[in-house]
Design brief:
The protein is of the alpha+beta class. It is about 25% helix and about 35% strand. It binds zinc ion.
Amino acid sequence: MSRPLPVFIAPLRLCEMRTVVAGELGLDDMDRLAEFLSDQEGEVVLSLSFDEDERGIPFAVMTLDARLRLVCQRCLGPWEMRVRREVRLGFTREPGAAERIAEHGYEPVVLERNELKLRDLVEDELLLALPMIPKHEREDCQPRLGGGEGRDDESPGRENPFAVLAQLKGRREH
Ligand SMILES: [Zn+2]
């Protein structure tokens, strides 16, 4: 009984209308996220409440709820993670305004055009919610037979999707 969501949204217009967009998105066509998942079953339940604050900053409170099936980086077994996240997004068309928006407690979203793909926005937030190194608690972890203790392979340098993740996180923190 998932409700259909628009593929594209026009955040500034939605903020003027002070409206709510809510529904479910499948994880199965999020290509960047797919690199981290053991399978892409399931969906993310989301809602966005658009509004303008007293300074006239267009913003949305976005909530996400999803179960992600990740791969434990120690034993390479499946590891399920519940993501529940609430973020306050501040929208602007001007790159120079991002800093001011961040100062008021929003995560800035600089719009290159009036519309953006809702899925991209959601996928970014799910990526940001991932731990840098997903792994089981010790007692739940089952290193492969013959592999001894298993390795905590945190060495940089190899081609590793988590390096890409680190870049994304770094970019958002400014
Ligand atoms: Zn494990």
